[in-house]
Recover the amino acids of this structure.
């Protein structure tokens, strides 16, 4: 990742360093969080874990929300949309996520997150008419192959030496 950002010359402004740090930090948090949940929160209802995660996130972001509050209060429709996105999309995703942690384990659960760039590319092409390049397809193939190997969908060939 650092090489990709470096090759684009994004380190000169400092924004590239921040982007790489945020990406690596998110990756670290995913790994730590899913293993913590499996070890210390096994048996807790996924709905409770999801609610706690969402509430904790909201409280953590509250100071930033107050600090950057817009001059004009957003209309009711925007509040309802944000609430529906939070509860229906993120909330339900967290319920499924913690259910997966409990049933298939942390390694296979985190493998689902590898698919995000592939689906981002797909939805961008389908709904926004974004161009899909051969390099993007190659990257998607690598992601799919890695995910299949990680989850055990594809097993490495066994050595058949005598």
């Amino acid at each position: 990742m650092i090489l990709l950002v470096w090759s684009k010359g994004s380190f000169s402004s400092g924004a590239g360093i921040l982007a790489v740090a945020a990406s690596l930090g998110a990756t670290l948090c995913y790994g730590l969080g899913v293993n913590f949940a499996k070890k210390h929160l096994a048996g807790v209802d996924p709905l409770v874990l999801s609610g706690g995660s969402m509430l904790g996130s909201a409280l953590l972001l509250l100071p930033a929300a107050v600090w950057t509050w817009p001059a004009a209060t957003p209309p009711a429709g925007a509040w309802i949309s944000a609430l529906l996105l939070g509860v229906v999309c993120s909330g339900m995703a967290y319920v499924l996520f913690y259910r997966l942690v409990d049933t298939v384990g942390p390694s296979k659960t985190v493998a689902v997150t590898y698919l995000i760039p592939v689906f981002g590319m797909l939805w961008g092409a389908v709904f926004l008419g974004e161009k899909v390049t051969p390099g993007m397809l190659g990257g998607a193939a690598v992601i799919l192959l890695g995910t299949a190997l990680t989850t055990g969908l594809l097993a490495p060939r066994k050595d058949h030496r005598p």
User: Anything to note?
Assistant: DSSP finds seven helices and no strands in the chain. The two ends are 42 Å apart (CA to CA). Helices lie at 2-7, 15-40, 46-67, 76-104, 106-111, 116-128, 134-151.
